[in-house]
Design brief:
The structure holds 2 protein chains of 2 kinds.
Chain A (H helix, E strand, L loop, with lengths): L1 H16 L11 H6 L6 H12 L7 H9 L5 H5 L6 H14 L5 H14 L3 H16 L2 H8 L7 H7 L10 H4 L3 E2 L7 E5 L4 H5 L1 H13 L2 E4 L9 H5 L3 H16 L5 E4 L2 H8 L1 H4 L7 H10 E3 H8 L11 E4 L3 H4 L6 H9 L4 E3 L14 H4 L1 H18 L3 E3 L3 H13 L5 E3 L1 H12 L1
Parallel strand pairs in A: 2-3, 2-4, 4-5, 6-7, 6-8, 8-9
Antiparallel strand pairs in A: 1-3
Helix pairs in contact in A: 3-6, 13-25, 19-21, 23-24
Chain B lengths: L3 H11 L4 E2 L2 H6 L14 E3 L4 H14 L2 E5 L15 E5 L6 E5 L4 E4 L5 H9 L3 E2 L12 H7 L6 H4 L6 E7 L5 E5 L11 H5 L8 E8 L1 E2 L3 E9 L2 H13 L6 E6 H11 L9 E9 L1 H17 L2 E6 L3 H12 L1 H8 L2 E4 L9 H14 L3 E7 L4 E8 L4 H20 L18 H5 L1 H14 L38
Parallel strand pairs in B: 2-4, 3-4
Antiparallel strand pairs in B: 1-2, 5-6, 6-10, 7-11, 8-9, 8-10, 12-14, 12-15, 13-14, 13-17, 16-18, 17-18
Helix pairs in contact in B: 1-3, 8-10, 8-13, 9-12, 13-14
The chains are: A alpha/beta, B alpha+beta.
The structure holds flavin-adenine dinucleotide and iron/sulfur cluster (2 copies).
Chain lengths: ~425, ~475
């Protein structure tokens, strides 16, 4: 009860910080779809407060507004008063989840995907293997070709195309636990293999390890680590998120390292928040703090320690899409740009509205496909205006979403992680 | 009360999708950026043509309910807060720039166009639209005209009213009125346009606005001057004006503001400094250079302890950050910040500043002051916590005292934020009885049923009112009494 009261007090403090100035409205992607105040950060803050004070009920409209929000945190960047909107929206989703009132598709995904599959590395891999078999045996193409899923719904057909392609070999099976660089050792870093990244983005992981060892870092990939829990926390599954966070803290504690390097923006953002979610916890508060302090997003890491600049020039036009969980949650914006620009020959073209969400937002593009597509259309228009050959982004969700949008709109553009860009240029040199 | 038959008629006029009646929607339109609360509106409507507005207005006159126009809801005086028995009428979705006329240097816009969007658009063609309120990224031009908004560049370029050339307005009786136009000169009849500008939604709803734009100045120079006393800074402002130089902006930050800005931005401001002036000069290069030397000398003569000149555009933006983040920095420093908007003749700036600090000391409240010193318009910010009743009462007391001080110095209770609900308690004292009678008569004549944003700026009959509610729970009903 005491915890509940202190939470209430904490949320009250956040609410009271809001000046109602409205400076968060022009950058909110959902407000800009329909210009409705209730779909703006300022409006949502008022709605949440009213529900907490029992002035409003947990109505269908309220629930809808809470899930219409992308949790992109652009409003936190814009807010002059420092209102931590993300904590409010996540708390309100917990409240909705406690009452079992979330949208049906989300309830389903949470039960199967978040609570069951992603809470265990073993189950994640088993699911990935099944998906891989399906993708490889030609059935996927057949399903797409035949438009079979269209019989159920057009959307199901489209959403099905948003699934990541599962790799032949999973990352943690390809690499040994410790990888040493060839020459002198500059330092030792731990590396998060993660859940989806481990099975579907092994190439990015591989590039990250390559660039780390090429720059003299010994890489440790602790066995037994689990999903970071960010998808859970953002969707009102705080208990599962805590369970996963505890496991990770316990696993990583056993190793010595200078930094925990993470190449997925969503994961690094949430792992830095372990401190907050365990605040006041007798057993984990202090350990979470130590853990979070070590977490470094990979471009942040390299911008601090420096990296070998390739000598060969790479004559491409590149633009940069800022992942919400990088720019808004972690305030990392300068670092990836500087890294990109350090490559000789590269022309970095600024993407208009680079910090605007692409609509991927975790599982938002599956749960709210239509809204997600409207937001993606805006992003694609901006991408097209740059005329770039490559769009660089540092989050797997954005990566898939942009790939999907580029294909859908017939653009000729490649999506790349900043670290893969480096690996490619290093490779060209050798 | 808005009965279901009225709702049905409204839906008939603008369609079901444009009438919002859920408790959630109504709650979301029950506030603006002012620290006061009134009540939840009965309905929210979103018309799409002037004719629809005209029909809604006629319905309001037939059925007797009130209409409260609303842009983005960033008003600081409560102009768009709902009154009893009212509907909110939105114009923020009406956001097209209709025409940019490069030959006649003007633009036709819809009322929902965001100020900054117009600025960015005309800049592409080498023009500027100078009024730049701190809220430009979200405020609507309709709201700007209704509040006669100002901004940082007011010293040289004036405020919104200096840029309004014409208006299309739906009057409180439903007629659609056109006033003004593209001719630069026009003296045909009374100047109705100027009565409508700054009318805070009480005399009609703007549906189209014709605005003047001007060529973009060739170059500009920005600098910060630091002072060890507020008096020196204030005297510098007067001296610059007397020397017949007109910078585009002279902005002042006091010590409390400087400390908060430095705490928040870490841009390296000396926190011991009593006052900073941000000065920008723009125009043709030769002229800017000459004026810059002159202003430099004046600052030195008035004991500026240091002067920092921006070497390029990037540095200029950096220096301006100090001023632009003033509001945010103060807001972060305390749970509640109340922003005030007094203005005095420029020559009285020094006196106003010292009165503000005396009042703060006497009432034991921290006040951070910044603002448009070049035009005598300051924003004292009262740093308090609305949950601490005693502290909040001291802040409210200070506000009234500062407003009274401004009136005594020959100034005004509001330079740019408008009267709305927040400032109306002192309006009569400020403008005097004949003006009040004139305003009331005008309102009665144009809006005989008092349906258009009633109770804003003034009540139709003088009445006593206690402090305004700051919490929704405290909501009190307004009583609207017909004028004697
Ligand atoms: C952070 C911040 C900084 C600010 N800085 C400044 C500043 O520097 N200078 C300044 O002058 N103000 C400033 N303001 C105040 C405010 O932004 C302005 O008053 C602005 O003009 C309000 O525009 P809006 O679209 O939000 O109008 P709203 O708040 O929606 O409405 C304001 C008034 O206009 C009326 N109205 C709105 N649309 C129409 C229409 N189409 N027809 C008729 N009436 C209409 C409303 O009824 C109401 O009375 C600031 C506010 C904030 C929050
Ligand atoms: S998190 Fe993003 S979508 Fe949600 S209110 Fe903030 S800006 Fe809008
Ligand atoms: S920007 Fe911040 S203070 Fe202003 S309305 Fe939004 S959340 Fe509130």
């Amino acid at each position: 009860m005491a915890l509940k009261e202190s939470l209430q007090q904490h949320l009250d403090d956040i609410y009271n910080k809001c000046l109602q100035c409205g400076l968060c409205l022009p950058i909110c992607p959902t407000y800009n779809l329909d210009l409705r105040e209730e779909s703006s950060p300022r409006g949502r803050i008022q709605l949440i407060h009213s529900v907490q004070n029992n002035e409003l009920t947990l109505s269908e409209i309220f629930v809808n507004e809470m899930y219409f929000c992308l949790d992109c945190r652009a409003c936190e960047t814009a807010c002059p008063a420092g209102v931590r909107f993300g904590e409010l929206i996540e708390e309100s989703r917990n409240m909705i989840s406690d009452k079992g009132l979330e949208p049906f598709i989300l309830k389903f995904l949470k039960k199967i995907f978040l609570r069951w599959i992603l809470t265990s590395t073993k189950r994640t891999k088993t699911a990935a293997r099944i998906l891989r078999a399906y993708q490889r045996c030609g059935l996927k193409e057949a399903v797409i070709e035949s438009g079979l899923l269209r019989l159920f719904s057009d959307k199901l057909h489209e959403k099905h195309r948003l699934l990541p392609t599962i790799q032949d070999k999973f990352f943690d099976e390809e690499f040994s636990e410790i990888i040493r660089p060839a020459g002198d050792v500059r330092g030792r870093v731990a590396f998060l293999s993660g859940c989806i990244m481990n099975v579907a983005f092994t190439d990015i992981h591989r590039d990250a390890v390559y660039v780390l060892i090429a720059n003299g870092f010994e890489v440790v990939i602790p066995r037994g680590q689990v999903c970071c829990g960010s998808l859970h926390a953002h969707n009102g599954e705080i208990d599962s998120a805590k369970y996963l966070a505890q496991k990770n803290i316990e696993v990583f504690e056993k190793y010595q390292f200078d930094a925990l390097v993470v190449d997925s923006a969503g994961c690094s953002a949430f792992m830095k928040e372990y401190t907050r979610i365990f605040a006041g916890d007798e057993k984990y508060a202090e350990r979470a703090k130590i853990f979070s302090q070590k977490v470094k997003e990979i471009t942040e890491f390299f911008s601090e320690v420096g990296l070998t600049i390739p000598l060969t020039s790479f004559n491409k036009k590149v633009t940069y899409h800022e992942a919400c969980h990088l720019v808004h949650t972690q305030k990392i914006s300068r670092q990836p740009r500087e890294l990109i620009q350090s490559i000789p020959g590269i022309e970095l073209i600024e993407l208009p509205e680079a910090t605007w969400c692409c609509g991927s937002a975790g599982i938002y593009n599956v749960v709210r496909y239509d809204d997600s597509m409207k937001i993606l259309d805006r992003k694609i228009k901006n991408l097209e205006s740059t005329g770039a050959d490559i769009v660089v982004t540092a989050n797997p969700g954005c990566h898939l979403q942009l790939q999907y949008g580029i294909k859908k709109h017939g653009l000729n553009m490649q999506v790349m992680h900043p670290i893969s860009l480096f690996r490619t240029v290093y490779h060209e040199k050798s | 009360m808005i009965t279901s038959s009225i709702t049905k008629k409204l839906k008939g006029i603008i369609g079901n999708d444009n009438v919002f009646d859920s408790p959630e929607s109504r709650l979301a339109y029950s506030y603006d950026s002012s620290p006061i609360n009134t009540q939840i509106p009965d309905l929210v409507v979103r018309p799409t043509t002037p004719e629809q507005i005209s029909q809604i207005v006629q319905l309001a006159n037939d059925e007797i309910f009130s209409i409260v126009p609303r842009g983005s809801g960033t008003g600081l005086s409560g102009g768009t807060l709902p009154s009893e028995n009212s509907i909110i009428l939105l114009t923020n979705h009406w956001n097209k720039i209709i025409e940019i006329d490069k030959e006649n240097l003007c633009v036709w816009v819809e009322p929902g166009v965001i100020t900054a969007n117009l600025q960015a658009d005309v800049e592409k063609y080498g023009f500027i639209y100078p009024p730049d309120p701190g809220s430009a990224s979200i405020s609507t031009l309709g709201g700007n005209v209704a509040e006669n908004a100002g901004g940082l560049r007011g010293l040289k370029y004036g405020v919104t009213k200096n840029y309004v050339l014409g208006l299309e307005v739906v009057l409180p009786t439903g007629e659609i009125l056109h006033t003004g136009g593209k001719s630069v000169k026009d003296v045909a009849g009374y100047n109705l346009k100027d009565i409508l500008i700054g009318s805070e939604g009480t005399l009609g709803i703007f549906t189209k606005i014709l605005l003047k734009i001007i060529p973009k100045p060739a170059t500009s120079k920005t600098f910060l001057a630091f002072f060890s006393s507020m008096e020196d800074a204030a005297r510098t402002v007067s001296a610059i004006i007397t020397a017949k130089v007109t910078p585009s902006m002279i902005e002042l930050l006091d010590n409390t503001t400087i400390r908060c800005v430095e705490d928040y931005t870490h841009i390296g401001l000396p926190v011991e400094t009593a006052a900073i002036l941000l000065i920008e000069i723009d125009g043709k290069k030769a002229l800017v250079d000459d004026d810059a030397i002159l202003v430099h000398e004046i600052c030195r003569k008035h004991n500026a302890t240091a002067i920092k000149v921006a070497q390029d555009e990037i540095e200029s933006i950096k220096l301006k950050t100090a001023r632009r983040s003033a509001f945010a920095s103060l807001a972060r420093a305390t749970p509640t910040t109340l922003t005030e908007d007094v203005a005095v003749p420029r020559s009285e700036i020094a006196k106003l500043v010292s009165r503000i600090s005396e009042i703060g000391k006497k009432n034991n409240i921290r006040i951070g002051t910044f603002g448009h010193a070049g035009v005598g318009n300051l924003h004292p910010n009262y740093m308090t916590d609305k949950r601490d009743k005693a502290a909040f009462a001291r802040a409210e007391k200070s506000i009234i005292e500062v407003e009274e001080a401004a009136i005594e110095l020959g100034g005004t209770i509001t330079g740019e934020h408008g009267v709305g609900l927040y400032k109306k308690r002192l309006l009569e004292k400020m403008v005097g009885s004949p003006s009040m009678i004139m305003m009331r008569k005008l309102k009665q004549m144009m809006d005989p049923n008092n349906i258009m944003n009633p109770g804003k700026i003034f009540d139709l009959r003088p009445k006593c009112e206690g402090p305004l509610p700051t919490e929704r729970e405290q909501i009190k009903k307004f009583e609207e009494v017909a004028w004697i």
